[in-house]
Amino acid sequence: MSFEWFSTVSNIFVVINVMLAVFILFFERKAASSAWAWILILFFIPIVGFVLYLLFGKSLRPKRLNSTAVYDNKKFKENQKRQLDEIQEGSFRPSSKTIEKWIDLIQMNLSRTDAPLSTATDIQIFNDGTKKFDALFEDIRMAKEHIHLQYFILNNDDLGRRLVGLLTEKAKQGVNVRFLYDDLGSKNLPNDFFDEFHSNGGIAVPFLPALMSSINPRLNHRNHRKLVVVDGAIGYIGGFNVGDEYLGKKEFGYWRDTHLRLEGSIIHSLQNRFFIDWNQATKKFPLKFAESFFPVKGEETGTAMQVVASGPLETHEDIKNGYLKMIYHARESIYLQTPYFIPDKSIMDALRTAALGGVDVQIMIPHQADHIFVHSATLSFVRELLRDGVKVYSYKNGFLHAKTLVVDGESYSVGSANMDIRSFTLNFEVNAFVYDKQSAQEMEDLFFRDKELSVELTEKTFKNQSWIEKVKQDVAKLVSPIL
Prior knowledge:
The chain has helices at residues 2-26, 32-44, 46-57, 74-89, 97-101, 103-112, 129-141, 158-172, 195-199, 267-281, 318-329, 345-356, 372-386, 421-426, 437-451, 459-463, 467-478, and strands at 118-120, 122-128, 146-151, 176-182, 203-207, 227-230, 234-238, 255-263, 303-310, 333-337, 341-342, 360-366, 391-395, 399-400, 404-407, 411-415, 419-420, 429-435, 454-457. The strands form three sheets. It has a nine-stranded mixed sheet, sandwiched between helices. The longest helix is centred in the first third of the chain and has 25 residues, at 2-26. The chain is an alpha/beta fold. The two termini are 40 Å apart. The chain is globular and about 60 Å long.
């Protein structure tokens, strides 16, 4: 009887696996490599594979998120449309040769995303967590009207409690404070973490929260963005989350990341993105357009840039496509920093083509691994690029979490997106694309300073590795499309 029961259950799972495989192949919006990786898992580990797919593999449907119709910024949309029309009609007048050179990337971002070309009248680059949070805390203390924060990770530690404590004080003063955090990234927060904050008028909302406190069928689609807007006048974007490790106080030691502090009309783009994400996350506390959220200061001069978002609801991989445009533009140099390097074929081909064409392509990855399997996959991909002349460096002064791409000393991108398939297709990400020689030179200088704290990885490095390490890398690369 027990054998018959087991046989019946097994047959049911076989049928379910076949049906799920057909569904993945013909109905899910997945890359071929990702689809076939899931099909292999389903057939080699049928029961476990089925559960894993329900938790990690399902695509996110637009209807699962609330409507964004409560927010309608007509001026923002009109400005973007006007810029795109001028470029397409040939009447757009670039304010610098750098902008003129990157006009096709600018046009692509205008066509595909809510990313008008805007100006930063002041831009500060932070590569140290203590300095970044000191500046952020000071800006929060000076806030008069509103503070909007969005982080993937908010930890219940000294930094997290200090930040929320300060936000609570501002809420007491009558400042409107809204905090959007990712439910999975901030999973260790106790239930009463925001009690005092809420009782004083602050509002904290989780993005895609778990069902029944622990079950989350949307585990694989997380809001990885890091944004702050203060009074519609000051903004932050980059890679730092909120936790003591980002100050170098945990097991990895020094934490090397990159973040921007911005002023100018570019803040409207950060605010726009926050409004959309906030209204997708909550129906209870909708944000509606008001002029005070988008203050206008007249004509501005400064650094030209765009803020580009991408995520699983989009039909195009917009940040990845921006990376590709930048790489194919390169004539002299490409300097890339990323904690996780798991690119798809298009990125690999672009980097390989650039290096073979004489462009100085240098990639920097962390020496320490915070995810062993992902790090093994990273090593397998950079090992492949060494044959084509790409130079690879392993950062040894703590942990490298920066996500930066600098091209020809003229343009760069920095934000939340890693150079990996997860950031391209699964997570909600946001990056700044900056078109300015002076600022790009500062980013290059940071890269070369980090290079002095790194060791170069060569073909000999990998030849001297044990066969076990090589097998780990090859296996990790095989399943990399679903990492």
